[in-house]
Amino acid sequence: MAFTKKRTMLQIFPPSLRDIWDKWELRFVVLSSLIFQITLVLLGNKRKHRTSTWLRITLWFSYLLADWLATISLGVLSNKVGDSTEGDFVEPKYVIISLWAPLLLIHLGGSDTMTAYSMEDNELWGRRFLSFIVQIVVALYIFLRVWTDNDLNVLAIPIFVAGIVKMGERIWVLWSASSQQFKESLFPDPDPGPNYARYMETYIAASHEGFLVDVQGLETPSIGDDHTHAAAEANIIPLPQTDTHGPDEIVKIAHNFLKTFKPLFADLILSFQDVLESRLSLQNGIGEEVFQVMEVELGFMYDLFYTKAAVTYSFMGSFLRLVTISCNVSVLCGFFSIQKNQYPKVDVFVTYVLLLGAITLEIYSVISLYILSPDWTMLWLSGHKNKVTSHMMRALKKVKNKRWSSSIGQFNLISFCLKAKEQRCSIVQKLWCFMFGKGFRKKVGKCSLVRMIIDIYQSYQKYKCTDIKIVNDDLKNIIFEHFINKIKEVNMTEEVKDEEKVADEIKRFCYHRGNKVLERFKCSAQLGWSFEGEFDQSILLWHIATDLCYNCVSGEGADTNSGQNFREASKLLSEYMLFLLVMRPSMLPNGIGEIRFQDTCAEATEFVKDRKSIKRKKEAFEMLLIVSSESENVHPSQVKGDRSKSILFDACRLAMRLTKLRNEDEGETKRMWELITQVWVEMLGYAASHCQGIHHAQQLRHGGELLTHVCLLMAHLGITDQFQISKGHARKKLIRK
Known about the structure:
The protein has two domains: 13-184 and 308-378, no CATH class; 408-702 and 705-724, no CATH class. It has 35 helices and eight strands. A hairpin with a 2-residue loop joins strand 1 and strand 2 (89-90). 37% of the residues are buried. InterPro entries: DUF4220, DUF594.
C-alpha cells in the first residue's frame, strides 16, 4: 500500500529561506521584543496629552506584540536548549542565548510609562500573574538546563533579580488599579460605632436594680452651624496668583484635592466637609486657574491607573529602581570583561544590544517620570525645602509639562450628511448599483462578514467627519462662571450659616439639563418643549438649531465687557456634545441617541438629495428654514408619526423660535447667543455628572475629555449627588432616676 507524503506549509518556501529563518528566528523575535518595548517607553506617556489615532494604534499594536513576542521568545529558547546537552557538555552558543531568558523577563515587566493599555487590563491582573509565574518557570528551566561552571551563567542571576522585580512591580500596579482594589483602598477604617451591647447591658442592669432609666441625647454641633462653616474656612486652600507663584503651588493644591476626590472614579460617596472646603477654596478663583488644578488632578489619576507611578514615586519604588539599574549595569560590565571568543559573534552583539537596551530603557523611564512629567517630583521637592531642592525646582519649572490635550472633538450633522450625499453620487456607488440589483444587495447585507465590513466603513466615515478644536481660556471661564453664578444665587436666597440647606440646593444643579436656563431667561413657554424628551433628543435638537442660527443669523455674539464670545462658544459646545453622542455614547446617559442620530441623518440626506441645487451648508440651512417657516402650524409628528426618530424639522422649529427671541438690535443678538451658550453649558454639566467614573477614567488614555474636567469641577463645587451629609453618631447617655 502506497502512502502519499504530506507537504507542509513551510515546504512552499525554498530550503535556503527555511535555513535562514531557522538560524535567525530567535534573534529576530528577541530584538523585535526590545523594539516594541522601546516604542512603549518613548510613546507611552504621550497619550496622556495627545488625541492622535495613529499614536493610539501604534501603542495598542506595540502593547500586544511586546508581551506576545517575549513569550514566544521564551518558548523558542526552551525548544533550542532542550536538545542542547550531550552528556556533561553544553555548546557555548546555547550558554550565551540562555542569558536572553532573564532579559526577556525584564521585557515582560513592562515599561514604567505604560503598564496598562486600558482599564480592562487592570482587571486581568490575576491572569497576568499566572502567566508571569509560568514564564518565570520557563526562564528558570532554560537557565538550569545549560548551567555549567561558567562566568556567563553567574551573570544571569542579577538579571533574574531585575526581571522578577519588574514583573512584581507590574502585577502590584495592575492589582492596585483594578476597580475592586482601588475602591477598597478608599474605604475608611472599620468603624463599629458606639458599643450598643454594652450600652444595653448597662440599661438592663439599671432597670433590674429598680432605677427609672431615661435616655437623653448629648448636644452635638449640627452641620449647618457656625462651627462647621468656621472649620471649613480654616481649611481653605486659596488658589495662588499665577504671576507670583509657580506651578509647584498648583501641584500641591491639586494633590491635596486628589486625596479627597479619588472616590469619584470608584463611584463612592464624598463627605460633606470635604466638598464644602473645596467649594469655598475655588469659588473665588478664575476659570483658567481652576481648570489648571483639574488638569493636574486628572494627570495624577492617569498615572495611578496606567503607569507605575504608585510604585515609582515612593521610597520602595526608588530603591527597587536603583536595584534593577545596578543589576543591569553590573551584568553589562561583567559581560564586557569576560572572554567571549568561544561564542558566536552575532549572539554576542545581540546580547550587548539587549543589555544596553535594558539599561537605556531604565534610565529613560526615570527621566520621563521624574523630569519630563515633573508633577510628582515637584510635589516631593516642595516638601523638602533647601538650597538643592530650590535649584532643582527652578529647573523643573522650565520644563513644558502637558497634562491633557486641551482639545475637544467636533462633529457636525449637516456637514456629515452633505458628505454622505457626495459619496452616494460617486462613480463607485453608481457602478455598484449598476452591477448588482437591489434584491442582491439585500441578500448580501444579511451576511455577517459584509455587515461587519459595512459597520467598519461607516465608523470610518464618522471618524473622517470629526474635527479637533482647542479649548481656549474663554470657554473655560464661561463654564466656570456658569456654575459659580448658580451657587451665588443660592447663597443670596439662603442663609449662609445653613450649609446643609445650601448644599442640598447646589446638589440639585446636576439634574438641570438646560431647562433652568430657559427659566432664567424667561423663555420656558416658547422653548421648554425642547427638553421634554430624552436627553439625546435635546442634544440633537439644540445642535441643529445652533448650527442654523450660527450660519443664518447675522450679528456678533461677543460680550464687550468680559470679552466672551458666546457665538463661538455655543458652536464649540454644540459640536462637542454631538461628538460625544456619535463617538463616545457610553459617556452620555442611556437612551436611543444613536438610533435618533441615524434617522435624523437619513432624513437630512434625503432632503439634500431631493434638492440637487444644494451644494453648500448655508444653502441647505436656507432651504430648511424656508420649509419650516411655511409649515409653522403643521407639527412634523403629525405627518411622520412616531416610527422614525428623526427630529430634523423639530430642530428647525426650535431655530425659528430662537430667532424670534431677538430683533435687529445687536444687544438682542448677543442675548440670544448667551442663552444658547448657557443652555449648552447646563447640558454639558448634566452629561458630566451622569457619566460613570469608569468611563471618565477610560478617556484619560485618549488625551482626556472636557467632560471629565467639568465633572471634577462640579464635584469640587458640590454639584454632584455623590456626597452625603453625615449626621455622625447619635450620642446618648443614660440617666438614672
